[in-house]
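### Sample
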Amino acid sequence: MSKGKKFIFILADLFFLTILIPILWDYFNQMNFRWELSPSSEIPYIGEKLPQYIFISASILGILLLFALLIVIFYPKTYMEILLDDKAGSLTLKRSAIEGLVRELVLDNGYIRNPKINVTLYQSTIKIDVQGEIIPRVEIVEKTKAIEQEIKESLKNFFGLNHEVKLKIKVSSIVEKKDSTSPRVV
């Protein structure tokens, strides 16, 4: 998550908390924690339950906003490119280059058809999701593990990446083989 998004989410969260905390403070004094409710408003039918509803819902909302604030603060920053420094110079590696390399490796193996590759770059980790239709063959699990290992090695050898690579392959469907001896209509 970029710093700009984090800043906006933190400001929005703090805004909601500044509204919610006074409501909790005011209704805490009106809240009767016994099972009996005392009337707090002139609204018919719901007037007796209104303070309890507002207090409980505001408490739940406040807890959810505190958790959301912690998630936003500690959410890892994603990058669009990686800077590779070397003694000879530096190279900027874009996410699309990694997607292209992974797509070529998957297509070269021929076990996954119509692959959809999604790459997410973090500071020290690269997350790669490959999704596609698998062609039915023997030892599919071993073949996908071989593809995973080949992708990891290619990223290290070709680009010189020292990042941890997390690779996930999802099979969306199995491609049916078409019979070549289909009957003809005469």
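The chain has a mean pLDDT of 76. This sample (Alkaline shock response membrane anchor protein AmaP) is used throughout the tutorial notebook.
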